[in-house]
Write a structure and sequence with these properties.
By secondary structure, this protein is an alpha/beta fold. The chain is 49% helix and 16% strand. The structure holds nicotinamide-adenine-dinucleotide.
């Protein structure tokens, strides 16, 4: 287990699935964790389970005002910010013909804009003292997925934003690392919803290559630890070979 004693972490989308597992893992490694989400009741209950090491805060990742408040409150409550995990996301199973403009804008707002705002506010808080940002992308950023054009595009944005931030930190001498994690099919409420609504191909792919939220959390914990000090701008697959086809 990594040693994150005394580190201050903020995890978005922490009320469910992968985000909840990341928050648990970082807290177990010694970090103080702000669990941020729009699902306030569940988020509060999960933070209470983690005890004094965790706090919950409402954060709609698409809202600039929410980000300003959340980062300021997290820094005040946890004495700064060392670790940011941009995990909040939504999926949409809709091919290109049935994706409306508002579908596209909605998914971009949460997955791409949410990650952009998180990186901007997070970097501002970390630029002097240093830190680590992990952005949760997807294998959809590597391979186009026909049933998920908007989702795939939003996760592609997360992938290239991550690399741009890593390069900016390197060029600007900012002691912050920024990496992306690309899960394959992970058993969470998100994929359970798709399995109910989706076709056989998707269901088969999911069942064949399904991982657990803890598999992703372990990669995140490594990336934010000192052991990963030389890893910056990388894209880490956690997909049990699903991406290989
Ligand atoms: N489950 C998978 O197979 C899989 C695969 C690849 C990538 N991912 C990515 O991992 C991340 C977590 O997915 P998950 O499977 O745990 O999903 P999930 O649906 O279980 O959890 C997502 C969480 O994000 C929160 N959220 C949604 N919109 C938000 C907003 N505007 N502001 C703040 N929080 C918001 C939800 O309330 C929920 O708690 C997502 O970015 C997803 O795209 C998941």
């Amino acid at each position: 287990m990594e040693n994150l004693d005394g580190k201050s972490a903020l995890v978005t989308g922490a009320a469910s699935g992968i985000g909840a597992a990341i928050a648990r893992r970082l807290a177990a490694a010694g970090a103080r964790v702000t669990m941020a989400d729009i699902a306030d009741q569940t988020g509060r209950e999960l933070a209470a389970e983690l005890g004094a090491q965790a706090r919950y805060q409402h954060l709609d990742v698409g809202s600039e005002e929410d980000w300003a408040q959340c980062v300021a409150d997290t820094c005040a409550a946890q004495n700064g910010l060392d670790i940011l995990v941009n995990n909040a996301g939504i999926a949409l199973l809709a091919d290109i013909f049935s994706t409306s403009l508002s579908d596209w804008e909605n998914i971009m707002r949460v997955n791409a804009t949410g990650c952009f705002l998180g990186c901007r506010f997070g970097l501002e808080a970390m630029r002097e003292q240093g830190g680590a940002i992990v952005n949760i992308s997807s294998i959809a950023a590597m391979a186009g997925l026909a049933p998920y054009p908007a989702y795939s595009a939003s996760k592609g944005a997360v992938r290239s934003l991550t690399k741009s931030i890593a390069a900016a930190c390197r060029d600007g001498g900012i002691p912050v690392r920024c990496n992306s994690v690309h899960p394959g099919a992970i058993d969470t409420p998100m994929t359970r919803g798709i399995r109910i609504e989706g076709g056989d191909d998707i269901e088969n792919a999911i069942v064949a290559g399904m991982g657990k939220p803890e598999d992703v959390a372990a990669m995140v914990a490594f990336l934010v630890s000192e052991d990963a000090r030389f890893i910056n701008g990388a894209e880490m697959l956690v997909d049990g070979t699903l991406c290989m086809g």
